[in-house]
Amino acid sequence: MQTTEQKPEIVATLSLSELTALLIKNQGLHEGLYNIAITFQIGVGAVGPQNEQGALPGASIGISGVGLSRTPQEKANAQTVDAAQVNPAPKKKKK
Question: Would you state the torsion angle of the CA atoms of residues 63, 85, 32, 17, taken in this order, to the nearest 10 degrees?
Fold first, then answer.
């Protein structure tokens, strides 16, 4: 039987660096180095259909949160984002 259900349309795909930059802007950060921090939840147990062997041991992994981790200069890597470059502090107006 063929299904007519449409797949959801993906309207934006972000790299890890792009997502990090968006979080930096969202949090109003203007200085420091940051990496994305993803928190996972792992559940284990018997999974799958019951058969002659019974259910099999398995695991389920879910993403429970996304955040920012401040990164020291010596730990910076290709995914590290500098807040001063992607979200510079606003210039103060002269009176």
Answer: 20
Q: Answer for the pair 35, 77: CB distance below 8 angstroms, yes or no.
A: yes
Alpha helical stretches, state H, 1-95: 16-26, 83-86
pLDDT at 94 over 80: no
Residues 6+ apart with CB under 8 A from 73: 33
* pLDDT of the residue at 49: 78
- Under DSSP, the state recorded for 14 is -
Sign of CA dihedral 31, 81, 39, 15: positive
Share of the chain above pLDDT 70, in %: 96
Whether residue 91 has pLDDT greater than 60: yes
C-beta of residue 72 within 8 angstroms of C-beta of residue 15: no
Q: How far apart are the first and last CA of the chain?
A: 72
